[in-house]
Design a protein that fits this description.
The protein is mainly α. It contains 11 helices and 2 strands, in the order H-H-E-E-H-H-H-H-H-H-H-H-H. The chain has helices spanning 14-17, 21-40, 53-81, 83-88, 92-117, 126-151, 153-156, 164-167, 183-188, 190-198, 202-230, and strands spanning 47-48, 51-52. The longest helix is centred in the first third of the chain and has 29 residues, at 53-81. It is globular and about 55 Å long. The mean pLDDT is 91.
């Protein structure tokens, strides 16, 4: 494989496109169904911004499932076919960012919305819950700072699926990444936990846990095989 080649031939087959995706989809269905079953029984008549707690729960589940399916398809199609680059040329990452970031922002927003609509459903001391939420925010802020300073938003967006220059970069070992290569998945998703704990919301905590579990399913089913190909 030529080092300056955008398309990785091993990723261009239909077999690789769907590699790990049946497991990914199966786990998403299981996680979504379990979240609904455990959370729905604690919902009442709560609402926020005119929408019920059930509506926010449904939206939260739909958004994180749809987000992961879209990212998996785009990563695989870009890696094996350079689809976005062929369609949008130099604007490929701009278009991808326009699609990706609203979904990313909607994840914590729906957790917060559900937490506001179902607050005080978690049987835990108020001050302890808020102290725990503050403690969880610390590694979140540190990791986000590390991403901006050492990693970069474009690379976090999946730049190594789009540009050869990102594939040539070594692993980031500064900031939060000096402790783990998966700092974003391990620490940033604690933001969702912190939101749920701050409002003492049982359904929101379940939604946060579900999103954190699902992103690891995405990593092992989609991202890790891709990284193995990209970085040999």
């Amino acid at each position: 494989m030529e080092p300056d080649k955008i398309i990785i031939e091993e990723a261009s087959s239909l077999k690789y496109l769907f590699k790990g995706q049946l497991i990914h989809l199966a786990f998403l269905i299981i996680i979504a169904a379990t979240t609904w079953f455990l959370a729905e029984m604690t919902l009442s008549q709560g609402s926020w911004l005119g929408q019920s707690d059930r509506t926010w729960l449904i939206l939260g589940i739909m958004i994180f499932c749809l987000h992961q399916v879209i990212v998996a398809l785009v990563f695989r199609l870009q890696l094996g076919q350079a689809l976005f680059t062929r369609l949008f040329g130099r604007l490929d990452l701009v278009v991808w960012g326009i699609i990706f970031f609203p979904f990313l922002a909607a994840r914590p927003f729906t957790v917060m919305a559900l937490a506001r609509a179902s607050q005080n459903t978690l049987n835990i001391n108020l001050y302890f819950a808020r102290l725990l939420a503050i403690l969880l925010i610390i590694p979140v802020i540190y990791t986000l700072w590390s991403v901006l300073k050492y990693f970069g938003l474009i690379r976090a967006l999946g730049g190594d699926h789009f540009r050869v220059k990102y594939r040539k970069m070594g692993l980031v070992k500064q900031g939060a990444f000096q402790y783990t290569d998966n700092a974003m998945y391990k620490f940033v998703f604690l933001l969702l936990w912190a939101i749920a704990l701050y409002y003492r919301s049982y359904p929101a905590l379940l939604l946060a846990i579900s999103q954190h579990l699902s992103i690891w399913v995405f990593y092992y089913c989609t991202e890790k095989p891709d990284l193995d190909l990209i970085y040999n």
